[in-house]
Specification:
By secondary structure, this protein is α+β, with helices and mostly antiparallel strands. It folds into four domains: 189 residues, P-loop containing nucleotide triphosphate hydrolases (Rossmann fold); 98 residues, no CATH class; 134 residues, no CATH class; 148 residues, no CATH class. Helices cover 59% and strands 12% of the residues. The protein has 29 helices and 19 strands. It has a six-stranded mixed beta sheet with strand order 7-11-12-4-13-14, with helices on both faces. Strands 1, 2, 3, 5 and 6 form a five-stranded antiparallel beta sheet that branches. Helix 10 packs antiparallel against helix 17 and helix 24 crosses helix 25. The longest helix has 73 residues. The protein is elongated, with a radius of gyration of 44 Å.
Length: 795
């Protein structure tokens, strides 16, 4: 089974050039003050294993590319993570393509991307202190919902296709309906009703002396009867030509309606040009919008144009910002493109109408098409060409002016007179025209109605498919919510089990997570506080919220480990902030007992919790590091990770100079007093910042112990501390120059007294400080296993 072995980083975040982290089989404990580079190591592990670094890639305006390099070097970070199974080591570097790596390395990296193995304090706050929708977003990365989202995405893509097909079918049906309405004199019909069309036809059929239609099956017989009667007319070819040309002549006269629409287009064109003049630089909306779609739909990691590596969040944020900044020009461009398509379509239709009129004109044995119509057609062709080719506005205006100057009335009047004369020369052919009109109406009904029926049937199927697909999408969303609900119920149950190990004998806990019915993704969080059940933010302290968030994450990690047992990594980055001694102690115990088979990496700024952690893994293979210094030029520096107590009783501490010994002793005394004042419920004067100094801690503790056997059995030790504790202020707190004369004997007496106090109040068997048991036996101070026990006679 692969585990972390060594992490080497250079020019990454707060780390300039190491030092390296070496991982034992159990893991690593790393302690350091805030701002000394602890999280830089964690960021590097996350980035090299998952390809992402959430603190830098989930915040608008922040990115790995811009903020990961060390602020002075500004060169690309170098990260090298060595992993191994005890026999063979493998190296993973930043941006490495692992497709050529051994299968077990590929699986390890895949697991890192799919399993939530890293928790930061910020993540706890985001989850606990967020509204339900944001809480879902904060948790979804841990839930591994990608397969659900991909399935829903595919369904919605199908829904869009069906929607497009529906719109196309409706448009086709509308056109057929309009054609039938026009030819059969039916107005304002929403649907094609065959009875209405047959009824209208029968009126014409009766007038011409034919048998009426009862259904479409009678049409062929009726057509044969009409054709026989039409043969009695010997002038119908000329009449057909005249009628055809007359209909086109009517359409030509509608060209005048183009003038107003061309004016609208020119206005849109002018607005666009003016806005582009005001634009700084270039703005290509379609390039940005399509690029954004390609990146999201294809999960691109490299630019499709230059193949350079891209940060998806950076690109999306840039596109959104650019589009927002140019919202006005985008709207004008959209209106312009819409108007452009419409005007080109209408110009094309009118050009085709004139060309058809030319054909019919020639059929009427008139070879010379009127010059005025020729000129109109030429100007229409030129305008269409200018608009299609996006010619400059000045060129377009020249073409438009030629068109506006064409006098359409003169040729129309002239041609109309010629047509009327031709009709008169043919004599009275009303019956013939009625027969031809009836025949055309019948043919239209026979041609278009079956098409309509097929399209309408297809539309009905489309609507049924749409209905079924919407149901499937709904069921998919409900299925995802149910799967998430089942998952988070397990999380809540396990989290409560962990929470009770930290907060036993407290009437709080039982976290309840639930997916809300409303919205795509929302998770509500409730918890119990004595007899109340509600939002924990309303009842819990900050420390309890820290514990709750940590336990929820540990429960999630536990469930993922069950599904992926070959990836036993757990990283906690400075997750505790406002937790008292007892709860810190229990949290450390929980982690190492419940997750003993994991490789655990923990960073913390809290020296006391660091000591708790060291205590629980003292017999396990762990490396412990303490960051003792940090500078912008050199980054972090590792120092001695021993606790003050361990150092004072070590050969190094015994031989140390008096000033160093007093500094360590004073710090240990402060730690002892903070824990004892908490566990023995000793009151201390309130300080709003909570930074209690040695004097009030010692004064109140010393006073409280005077009536206890703890004092009477160790009076000399207590009196020595009372007498010598000012050394700490002289040397430890201020390091005054005049205090450098402190003797070895004086420092040794103070140091040995503080070490002695630690030995009589901290039990090394149960690893607990003595504490006040309860009000029922208020006079007893003892450790958990009762190896240390004192009576307090204060009444």
């Amino acid at each position: 089974m692969l585990r972390l072995k060594t992490l080497k980083i250079k020019n990454c975040r707060g780390v300039r050039n190491g030092p390296d982290l070496n991982f034992e089989r159990g893991g690593v404990l790393l302690c350091g003050d805030n701002g000394t580079g602890k999280s830089s190591y964690i960021d590097a592990i996350e980035k090299v294993l998952t390809g992402n670094c959430k603190p830098l890639e989930r915040v608008k305006g922040i990115s790995w590319a811009n903020h990961a390099p060390h602020i002075q070097s500004r060169t690309n970070p170098e990260i090298e993570l060595i992993i191994g199974d005890g026999k063979t080591n493998h190296t993973i570097t930043l941006n490495q393509n692992i497709s050529d790596s051994p299968q077990q390395v590929q699986q390890f990296v895949k697991s890192a991307k799919n399993c939530p193995f890293l928790l930061r304090r910020k993540t706890i706050l985001e989850f606990v202190d967020s509204p339900p929708k944001d809480r879902y977003i904060a948790l979804e990365g841990f839930l591994n919902l990608e397969k659900y989202y991909q399935f829903e995405k595919n369904l919605k893509s199908c829904e869009k296709i069906i929607e497009t097909q529906k719109i196309t079918l409706i448009e086709k049906i509308k056109k057929i309906r309009q054609t039938l309405d026009d030819n059969l004199d039916v107005s304002n019909s929403e649907f094609v009703v065959i009875d209405s069309y047959i009824s209208n036809l029968n009126e014409k059929i009766r007038a011409l002396g034919f048998n009426q239609l009862s259904s479409l099956n009678d049409i062929d017989d009726l057509k044969s009867q009409i054709n026989l009667k039409v043969q009695d007319f010997n002038v119908f070819p000329e009449s057909d030509k005249i009628n055809n040309f007359t209909s086109f002549l009517k359409n030509i006269s509608d060209i005048s309606n183009l003038i107003e629409e061309i004016y609208v287009f020119i206005q849109r064109y002018s607005e666009l040009l003016q806005e582009e003049k005001n634009l700084k630089g270039h703005y290509y909306f379609e390039v940005l919008d399509n690029g954004k779609k390609w990146i999201l739909e294809d999960n691109l990691t490299h630019c499709p144009l230059c193949n350079n590596e891209i940060n998806v969040n950076d690109v999306i944020n840039f596109v959104n910002q650019k589009v927002s900044e140019n919202k006005k020009i985008t709207e004008i461009q959209s209106q312009f493109e819409k108007t452009k398509k419409e005007i080109i379509l209408k110009l094309s239709r009118q050009r085709e109408i004139i060309e058809s009129a030319r054909v019919y004109w020639i059929e009427l044995d008139n070879n010379d098409f009127p010059d005025s119509l020729e000129k109109i057609q030429s100007s229409i062709i030129q305008i269409e060409k200018d608009i299609t080719n996006s010619e400059p506005l000045e060129q377009l205006l020249i073409s438009v002016n030629i068109f506006f100057n064409c006098k359409l009335e003169e040729p129309i009047t002239e041609i109309s007179k010629i047509i009327e004369d031709m009709k008169k020369s043919l004599g009275d052919n009303l019956d013939y025209r009625d027969l031809v009109e009836l025949k055309n109406s019948i043919i239209n009904l026979q041609t278009y109605y079956p098409q309509y029926k097929l399209l309408f049937k297809e539309l009905e199927k489309n609507l049924e498919d749409e209905k079924n697909l919407k149901l499937i999408i709904k069921l998919a969303e409900e299925g995802r919510k149910k799967a998430v609900q089942n998952f988070i119920q397990s999380i809540g149950s396990k989290a409560n089990e962990y929470f009770q190990l930290i907060h036993s004998d407290e009437s709080i806990g039982n976290p309840q997570l639930s997916v809300t019915e409303r919205g795509i993704g929302s998770i509500s969080l409730a918890s119990s506080f004595y007899d109340k059940i509600g939002d924990p933010r309303g009842y819990y302290s900050e420390g309890h919220l820290d514990s709750l968030g940590l336990c929820l994450f540990l429960a999630i990690r536990n469930l993922h480990k069950q599904k992926n047992p070959d990836f036993p990594l757990l990283i906690l980055d400075d997750v505790l902030h406002s937790v008292d001694y007892q709860h810190r102690f229990k949290t450390a115990k929980l982690i190492f007992e419940q997750f003993h088979d994991y490789q655990i990496v923990i960073t913390t700024h809290d020296r006391m919790w660091f000591e708790n952690l060291k205590l629980f893994c003292k017999n396990q293979p762990y490396n412990k590091y303490r960051i003792s210094s940090w500078s912008l030029e050199d980054g972090p520096g590792f120092g001695d990770q021993k606790s003050d107590y361990e150092w004072l009783i070590s050969p190094e501490g015994i031989q140390a100079n008096p000033a160093d010994k007093v500094i360590k002793s004073g710090r240990l005394l402060e730690e002892i007093l903070q824990n004892l004042c908490d566990s023995l419920s000793i009151s201390i004067p309130f300080r709003i910042r909570g930074d209690y100094t040695l004097d009030p801690l010692w004064t109140n503790f010393y006073s409280k112990t005077k009536t206890s056997t703890l004092y009477t059995e160790n009076q000399t030790l207590f009196d020595n501390i009372e007498l010598l504790r000012t050394q700490r202020n002289w040397v430890g707190a201020h390091f005054n120059d005049w205090a450098t004369g402190l003797t070895v004997e004086e420092s040794e007496q103070f140091s040995s007294s503080v070490v002695g106090l630690y030995d009589i109040v901290y039990c090394k068997d149960c690893n607990r400080y003595i504490r006040r048991i309860s009000d029922l036996i208020a006079g007893t101070w003892r450790c958990k296993c009762e190896t240390l026990r004192y009576e307090n006679n204060r009444k």
